[in-house]
């Protein structure tokens, strides 16, 4: 029996979470769901974007599934707050092209490893009406930890056996200097892994001109966030982009897309990102074979192109595509 925290959020977060729960209910694995609240609706109801009770539920569960949350003006991001509370310092965002979906290349397969707790997302801002300052926090400790994750992933993937460090140390000489130095310090422990480093602006171009060059990309918080959304655009959009947030004690899994208020309530959100994130969660808790089967089911359904949501060129509803994936699975 696995205890899974379910925090749907709002917007299409609730709709795609229904898909995740439907899928998990069909598996021959026992789950106990513990529900928490977060997001804009939570703020309107409770005066906070993330309940303390939700944090407790996530900390006491084997893993957490998060849907999506709408930005609340003047309030901290609930997902960033939850990541910090759980100390899930590594954000993993796989990027993969699918047959039947328009991609810039047919065989793209890399993963972005994003430091999840520091950088500009430290949310340390202050000032007055004339000047505001945001602090960019980079430590050697966190930089070495995230590089370690990246090298371990590259070793396990057995693809190009390469890790690319992305930074901007020509301008941000101290903060990104520390990040780059930490990367190469950890690289000394993995002589079998090829290493390279690029400036973030150059990487943004290389992802378009030569995406097959990449295997594992490691970067700081903001750069990793931007590059992962760009990368999702290479392979069909955010509807096919899952993510996992991993720490030493906790795992938090979420689709890369936001709450998409423009389509919320229409039942047309692509469930794949949430379902693929659920597969990442299953892999994390040790159900690796089931995770692989789910990934294959998504790949097969998308590849056939018969039951697709509008963002992928079809006219299926969210649950129709979900049911097709589950049918493929079982």
UniProtKB/TrEMBL annotation:
Stored InterPro entries: IsoCit/isopropylmalate_DH_CS, IsoPropMal-DH-like_dom, LEU3_arc
GO biological process, one term: tricarboxylic acid cycle
Pfam families referenced in this protein's UniProt entry, alphabetically: Iso_dh
MF annotations from Gene Ontology: 3-isopropylmalate dehydrogenase activity; isocitrate dehydrogenase (NAD+) activity; magnesium ion binding; NAD binding
Protein source organism: Methanobrevibacter millerae
Protein family: Belongs to the isocitrate and isopropylmalate dehydrogenases family.
Name this polypeptide is given: NAD-dependent isocitrate dehydrogenase
Stretches assigned to the Isopropylmalate dehydrogenase-like domain: 3-325
Signal sequence extent: none
Cofactors demanded by this protein: Mg(2+)
Database matches in NCBIfam families: AksF2_Meth, LEU3_arch
UniProtKB keywords: Magnesium, Metal-binding, NAD, Oxidoreductase
